[in-house]
Amino acid sequence: MKKLWKGNEAIAEAAVAAGCRYFFGYPITPQNEIPEYLSWRLFEVGGAFIQAESELSAINMVYGAASAGARAMTSSSSPGISLKQEGISYIAAAELPCVIVNMMRSGPGLGGIQASQGDYFQATKGGGHGDYHCIVYAPSTVQEFVDIIYNAFDVADEYRNPVMIIGDGMLGQMMEPAEIPPMKDTSKMFEKYHKDEWATCGHSDGKPRIINSLRIEPDENEEFTLRLYKKYEEIAKKETKVEEYRMDDAEIVFVAYGSVARICKAAIVELREQGIKAGLIRPITLYPYPTATIEKAAKSDKVKKFVTVEMSMGQMVEDVRLAVNGKKPVEFYGRCGGNVMMPADLVKYIKEGK
Fold this sequence. Notes:
The protein has helices spanning 7-17, 33-44, 55-67, 78-93, 120-124, 142-159, 169-173, 189-192, 218-239, 258-273, 291-298, 317-324, 343-351, and strands at 3-6, 22-25, 48-51, 72-76, 98-106, 112-115, 135-137, 162-168, 175-178, 242-245, 252-255, 278-283, 285-287, 305-310, 330-334. By secondary structure, the protein is of the alpha/beta class.
């Protein structure tokens, strides 16, 4: 049954339903309702909540819990995620599963607490040091955030890789009807994902379990990194998700993710009422990116141009241009600093031909 949930609180409850039992974090707006909710909810289900002394401590606590095979999670907002980047790189290199939520705020620097999408580069291009990737989701509704986080722990376990879910202040603070799925039975998760083969939780078979990301020998490090990238190729084949909205006859194609995609949909309805055939490609996974979907649209004789819409100065637009590969014009429309575009702004932009 659906009930009215604040975004951040729905995310927290969905994580509990997914089997998360350990949360480590540090307060920062606009995601504070997530740790606040979990600070009491986890104890009800036999879990543990720790407010760490810093973001650096929090991500390394996640590293420790994940090393023991637990379903662990952290959440933060833009500058807090920046502080976690070294730990995220370590987690990826140690091939540990975990879930990280980033409710983006405006920047750079401390910026402001208003909604933004200025962390696209941070989320999709590594963020930390070295050759690695998180699996990155960008939901656009509270219900989709619930559904994604409910499955994110399974995806993290399946690939032994950190999963990052990015939203913004609007998604975190808005209230929408959402249904929380039933509590997962995690009693066989350890066996299902072969955690007994690597988790450092005590074994009687005499085989050591070592979690490590230090590989000094160049050949060893290269071999490991190449293996990581084979895993990323598998993830791209199986986990890429995208929504196409009114694309059958679209001449103008918006590309947007998260809450901005909702604004684009409203603009598309208005544009079509005025005889302008607009459509939307909405990446649900930002990594792996739905390049093939955009490539296909770029080859269509119907499509005249693409317009990438972001609450930033233009970050995802680079991936759109790479996918289009010069076949059609790619324009950018953005707002920044915590400002949000309205559907009427996009309608005006398209009608003026800018």
